[in-house]
Amino acid sequence: MRHNIYIFPLILMSLFVAVIITFTIDRQKRIRHRNLHNIQNYFAEITGNYILRHDLYPDSLHKLSALADLLPGSTNLGIWTLDSRLVYDNQVDVHKSRMSGLNLPEIEEAILNGIGSSIRRSNFMDEEYAYYAKKYDDYIIRIAFSYETAQERLRPDSFYAIMILFISISFAAVFSIYHFRFRAATSNLKKFLSTYIKDRKFPPHSNFIDSELDEIERMFADICNQLEANEKRMSEMTNNVAHEIRTPVTIIRGMLETIRDYKELPIDKKYEYIERAYKQTIRLSRIAQDTILLSKTSSAPYYFSLTDVEIRDIVLEIYDDIIEVIKLRKAIVEINIEKGTVVHGSRTLLYAIFRNLLSNAVKYTGDDPKITIQVYGQTEDYYEFNVFDNGTGVDPKHIDHIFDRFYRINEGRTRDKGGSGLGLAIVRDAVKFHHGEITARNRPGGGLEFFFTIKKKITEPQSKYDSRQSNND
Q1: What tens digit of pLDDT does each residue of 297-315 get?
Q2: Where would I find the beta strands (DSSP E) of 256-338?
Q3: Which of 58 and 314 is assigned the larger pLDDT?
Q4: 154, 177, 210 - which closes a domain
Q5: What is the rounded average pLDDT for all residues in the chain?
Q6: Over 70: is that where the pLDDT of 62 sits?
Q7: What angle do CA 325, 327, 332 make, to 5 degrees?
Q8: N- to C-terminal Cα distance for the chain?
Q9: Last residue of some domain: 154, 178, 210?
Q10: Residue 366 Cα to chain centre, angstroms
Q11: CA-to-CA distance for 408 and 398, rounded, in angstroms?
Q12: Structural domain total, the chain
């Protein structure tokens, strides 16, 4: 049944070609008949004018022989009265013939309609003729060509039919080639999908046929690879989240069980345990919020609405939000971002970028931290930012992993700070959402520095087109 999808168009094309050729041949025949009648009518008009000019009817018709001798080949010229009596014929002796036109279809039709024609066998010449009769005031002029001669004029020109047939055959050949290539491509696609369903892996792209389906196969492979990577990433995240929440849940449970089981526990100890349990609930809340934000950034980028965001305003807002921590750490924050640095993007994710970078720098820099946030350059389409501190930096072995989810640097960056372990992963995905890139390095003079770019105006999130870049999370 599936082969009908290819056979049916061929059948339709064949029928179409047959109809076109039949129509063309029929039209050619009608044109040739009309041309033949025009020639016969022309001879009839010459004869009528000759009779009228020389006043030959009815007594001097024998003088038409001079004109009849000028007509081509075996042309028959006859004159008939309106009562269907033959009075002149250049090939028959009318005195001996006694021929009547009552049984001649072209004469009867001319009497009724003014013009008549027929193709039939001659009663005297034992040969087929193409007859044409035209009625005048007192008589009928009949012009007849030998049908064998007329056929040369009536035969349709086969050039157009041959051209149509040639074009049709060429089209059929091209269609057949395309058909077999398409069948080969679909067969390959079927094997391609079957291999994936069976083995959960794809055959190499080198087996693909160079066609439009090749692109579909590649796109499908990319989509499946992305889905598989997302599935793996989600599985890893689930395991990581489960591991991360185990510690605060264990602490909360231990504190509450201690308060419940030891009735004589001093009141100050009870408050201490309740405070420790409360801090762990804050940590659980941060893990949940960051996990949701990271999941939306990676898997549902269109969740975020786009608007014009003034970067300086958003950094000042973050500064105000964490001012207590800044004061507690006695940190100095230098903001070198001019008013008018506007990005058309997601306010939520832009806030998350600068909030995480500034918050991390304030918490982990060390004593007397100094943090700088600035625009160090720009192009026509991008802003170039960097955020750095005056701390000790990090061990170079950690640099390539600090954007991984739940990756922690032990030195000075422990869970005691209350972080979720997802901050820099959110920063990376949020930068990518805005068509940018981010890198980290240890500054030559000390401290950790982040360089990142943000596109000035985005219309669609980068992750839609380049989500494969996240496969190594």
Answers
A1: 666 566 778 899 999 999 9
A2: 307-310, 332-336
A3: 314
A4: 154
A5: 79
A6: yes
A7: 105
A8: 47
A9: 154
A10: 56
A11: 9
A12: 2
